TrEMBL record:
Residues 215-403 form the Major facilitator superfamily (MFS) profile domain. It is found in: Endomembrane system. It is a multi-pass membrane protein. This is Fucose permease.
Length: 403
């Protein structure tokens, strides 16, 4: 093991922040890969393209199964070893994607990829919220975007080198396993005392939390938002290549633009939110998502569609972290933990169901039904958000939504 005993607590935390950033990059890489690789995987296994929705459902099932039990698992083994095992699991699962010759094996790979990712995501967020500042936690999500942006670029680079999509999965799988080794070597550093254990917070039952009608509306927002984000990330490449005759290399760059604009937005909005209230930023974000999805839908020109994809990603950037940040002020501190847990679960479910529904609609209506679904999801998201803020502002007149 690495010897960190002589390091100060401050240096240890900085080192852990660095590792956490790398871990969140690794979380985003597989998401960015699948949207590009799926048409090739579909051809290889001779399965319909719309089966992507089924695959995502198994991924989410694995994600939820581990994320809901991570706190219990952490009482049995140390966080460092949990993170290491989860990275090994995701690495092996990515190899499974490349090696699978049957649909059933691909489903198992997707499930365990979700299980590993869910454990990493949940356990790191628990640790970060207890030991890192809120600003550092916010940057973690930006590094996820860096990973998701890099995924399509990695595959596109392998394409230009005359390699297949499998090379990208082997490469990213190797990164995951290497990260697992790093977690093992630094396992003792992850024993920093969690501040959450020292907080004596009033326990509120799930039933009491869900009796608040507007909580359900906030859950719907996360369901729709994440469904839209995943839809755009996973289906854009297929729409461009199958329906709009865009070359594979160019389409891959377009998808990278979406994830890249999401990441850029999260970085920039971290500074903007110091000057403008969270609610005002979210107003602009909702408007931008509608305009961007509308531009991609009408497809007047390749340039407009490209700008539409960029605007969707940039406008989506502040939604997830900012909505999480609003929860304690809008609903009360004692309800926050429960509500955030419901929101994240809804986000994962939406990320599976809405892309699946969009995919199934292509059979009777064709590929261009998916951009239509983008647009209507954007409208539903905006309406849900505006209604929630309008109602909660009445109850929280003294609450300033800015950071």
């Amino acid at each position: 093991m690495l010897n960190f005993h002589s390091m100060t607590t401050s240096l240890k935390l900085r080192f852990l922040i660095l590792i956490s950033f790398i871990a969140f990059v690794s979380l985003g890489l597989p998401d960015g890969l699948l949207g590009i690789a799926w048409p090739f995987i579909s051809d290889k296994l001779d399965i319909p393209l719309e089966n992507l929705g089924v695959l995502l459902m198994f991924f989410v099932a694995g994600y939820l199964s581990s994320s809901m039990t991570s706190s219990k698992i952490m009482s049995w083994i140390s966080l460092g070893w949990l993170l290491a095992f989860s990275c090994f699991l995701t690495g092996v699962s990515l190899f499974g994607f490349a090696l699978s010759n049957q649909w059933i094996f691909l489903i198992f790979s997707a499930y365990f990829l979700g299980s590993g990712g869910g454990a990493i995501d949940t356990s790191l967020n628990i640790f970060a919220s207890a030991n890192f500042s809120p600003s550092v936690v916010n940057w973690l999500h930006a590094f996820y975007g860096i990973g998701a942006t890099s995924g399509p670029l990695i595959l596109t680079w392998f394409f230009t080198m005359g390699q297949t999509w499998k090379s990208g999965y082997y490469f990213v799988g190797s990164i995951q396993i290497s990260l697992g080794i790093l977690f093992i070597l630094s396992s003792k550093m992850w024993l920093v005392k969690e501040k959450t254990k020292e907080i004596n917070q009033e326990k509120i039952s799930y039933r009491l939390t869900l009796q608040k009608p507007l909580v359900w509306l906030s859950i719907l927002i996360f369901f729709v938002y994440t469904g839209l984000e995943v839809c755009v990330g996973q289906w854009t490449f297929t729409i461009l290549t199958k329906s709009r005759s865009i070359a594979e290399e160019s389409a891959g760059l377009w998808v990278s633009t979406f994830w890249g604009s999401l990441t850029l937005g999260r970085i920039l909005f971290g500074f903007i939110l110091k000057k403008i209230s969270t609610v005002q930023v979210l107003h602009l974000a909702m408007f931008g998502i509608i305009i961007g999805s509308g531009a991609f839908l009408v497809d007047v020109s390749n340039t407009m569609s490209f700008l539409g994809i960029f605007l969707i990603g940039f406008s989506c950037a502040p939604v997830f972290p900012s909505m999480i940040a609003l929860v304690p002020g809008l609903f009360g501190e004692k309800f926050a933990a429960n509500i955030i847990g419901f929101q994240i679960s809804a986000a994962m479910i939406g990320g599976a169901i809405l892309p699946a529904v969009s995919g199934f609609l292509t059979d009777p209506f064709g590929w261009e039904v998916i951009p239509i679904s983008f647009f209507f999801q954007a409208i539903l998201l905006a309406l849900s958000y505006y209604f929630l803020i309008k109602k909660l502002k009445i109850k929280h007149r003294n609450y300033s939504p800015g950071f």
